[in-house]
């Protein structure tokens, strides 16, 4: 650095730490520079300072910048370009041309491109590649763009711990990964700079892994909704002239949700059992994100069920209707409820353990026990619950309106096939050490356990006070 440049740095330098001059000697710390004093630049600077780095901001207006993290220095761009070896470019891509005059100073240095775009394919090339073309002598590394300013300020959470890195220079990438690790993130090297566009698209994606499960859930819901609409509502209107279209809002939805959730649960395990038959002596592995969608369906079902039950009770009470007590029917009713509640509880457990924040803390064995063993048990309980719902109606011809089976019968097909195949697989003849597992991922939530307790309690509470009233035939007057 020439004497002139040094004096330029001195004149441009603004200390944001009033006590700095009072401290006789500061321990030497690695310096990192951040170009741009906007939201991300400031959050990054704060985090770097907290991790023990010396931070130098490069700004267009070094003398008029306020609210920067305590302890950071702010310089003009030219001076800042000489202050460190590693630079975060926290400036929008449209303004990258300010770096062109600094190309000489930045030669051989590491530039971390943190930029994102507003939409996919906004520019012909990735921002990091554009940056590299502007400053060809520098080592451009793409990274940190998947973190928000907010998450940087608040520190890494379980859900937001990953930092993706890509670039050409191995040493440059290692330097950036070392910084990421020191900030508390886990860095993942995604390869060369040609991957930058993919990394820049990450923040634009909305639940990418949920797309297929959502499409399946919506498709199944729509299909069953129209099927049941014809069988239940239109059938009643055509054959009896009865308008029961109000049932669309609660009763019909209450039928669609459990049907969809049971089919989706069985779809989680269907590929596994099929693969096990196809590859009895080979391991197989697949992913599915269906579980969270199923949990939503079953939760809606649970809520709807309580509404329908309450309406049903009120109707009985209003009409002062009583039915003769029958032990078999009581057994069937209690078993139906009990299996449903148990299945529902396990269902929620499956959903929760498929969340990354929870599954990350489970060992592989624990995870596979819950997702595989308890998963099949859940499927068994829910299927049995549905069979009990059908009870003796399977053989009654009046059940088949317009020669069509009711929805709950249709939804039993796939689960029954899956359970049958699973039963065959666990027999000594076909049992094998295959490692078929369902891996489920979804969005993170901090309220999973509360949700579990809430849902389980919701499952039990309404029945505790309703059932004695039904089975004991206590007369109640409508109020
Ligand atoms: P911002 O708040 O608008 O700040 C941008 C900074 O760029 C300004 O404060 C300014 O700093 C500098 N700048 C503006 N015009 C300039 C010019 N013509 N020449 C040189 N420097 C100029 O933006 P931000 O939210 O911090 O985002 C910065 C970058 O980080 C963007 O590329 C964005 O995509 C990326 N990013 C942001 C977030 C986030 O949560 N905000 C998350 C991930 C990635 P000076 O006034 O000090 O020069």
UniProtKB/TrEMBL annotation:
Residues 32-117 form the Pyrroline-5-carboxylate reductase catalytic N-terminal domain. GO terms for biological process: copper ion import; iron ion transport. Coiled coil: none annotated. One of its GO terms (molecular function) is metal ion binding. It comes from the Eukaryota. It is found in: Endomembrane system; Endosome membrane. InterPro entries: NAD(P)-bd_dom_sf, P5C_Rdtase_cat_N, STEAP_metalloreductase. Belongs to the STEAP family. This is STEAP family member 4.
């Amino acid at each position: 650095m020439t004497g002139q440049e040094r004096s330029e740095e001195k004149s441009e330098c603004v200390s944001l730490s009033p006590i700095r001059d009072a401290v006789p000697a500061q321990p030497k710390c690695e310096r990192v520079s951040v170009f741009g004093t906007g939201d991300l630049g400031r959050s990054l600077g704060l985090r770097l300072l907290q991790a023990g780095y010396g931070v130098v901001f490069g700004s267009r207006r070094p003398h008029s910048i306020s609210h920067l993290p305590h302890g950071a220095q702010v310089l003009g761009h030219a001076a800042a370009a000489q202050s460190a070896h590693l630079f975060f470019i926290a400036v929008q891509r449209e303004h990258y041309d300010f770096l062109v005059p600094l190309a000489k100073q930045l030669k051989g240095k590491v530039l971390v491109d943190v930029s994102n775009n507003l939409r996919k394919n906004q520019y012909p090339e990735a921002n990091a590649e554009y940056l590299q073309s502007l400053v060809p002598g520098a080592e451009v590394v793409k990274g940190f763009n998947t973190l928000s300013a907010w998450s940087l300020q608040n520190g890494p959470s379980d859900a937001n711990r990953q930092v993706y890195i890509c670039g050409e220079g191995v040493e440059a990438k290692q330097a950036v990964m070392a910084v990421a690790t020191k900030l508390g993130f886990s860095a993942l090297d995604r390869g060369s700079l040609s991957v930058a566009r993919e990394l820049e698209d990450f923040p634009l994606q909305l639940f990418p892994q949920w797309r297929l499960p959502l499409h399946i859930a919506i498709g199944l819901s729509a299909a069953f909704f129209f099927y049941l609409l014809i069988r239940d509502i239109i059938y009643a209107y055509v054959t009896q002239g009865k308008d029961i279209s109000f049932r669309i809002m609660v009763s019909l939805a209450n039928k669609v949700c459990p049907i969809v959730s049971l089919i989706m649960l069985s779809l989680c395990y269907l590929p596994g059992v099929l693969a096990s038959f196809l590859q009895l002596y080979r391991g197989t592995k697949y992913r599915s994100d269906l579980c969270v969608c199923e949990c939503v369906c079953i939760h809606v079902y649970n809520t709807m069920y309580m509404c329908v039950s309450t309406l049903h009770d009120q109707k009985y009470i209003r009409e002062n209707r009583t039915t003769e007590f029958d032990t078999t029917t009581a057994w069937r009713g209690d078993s139906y409820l009990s299996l449903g509640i148990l299945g529902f509880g396990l269902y929620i457990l499956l959903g929760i353990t498929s969340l990354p924040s929870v599954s990350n803390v489970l060992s592989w064995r624990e995870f596979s026990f819950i997702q595989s063993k308890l998963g099949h048990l859940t499927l068994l309980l829910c299927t049995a619950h549905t069979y009990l719902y059908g009870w003796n109606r399977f053989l009654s011809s009046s059940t088949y309106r317009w020669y069509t089976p009711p929805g709950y019968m249709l939804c039993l097909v796939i689960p029954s096939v899956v359970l049958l195949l699973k039963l065959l697989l666990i027999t000594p003849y076909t049992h094998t050490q295959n490692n078929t597992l369902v891996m489920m991922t979804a969005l993170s939530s901090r309220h999973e356990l509360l949700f579990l307790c809430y849902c389980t309690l919701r499952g039990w509470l309404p029945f505790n006070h309703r059932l004695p009233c039904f089975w004991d035939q206590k007369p109640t007057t409508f109020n």
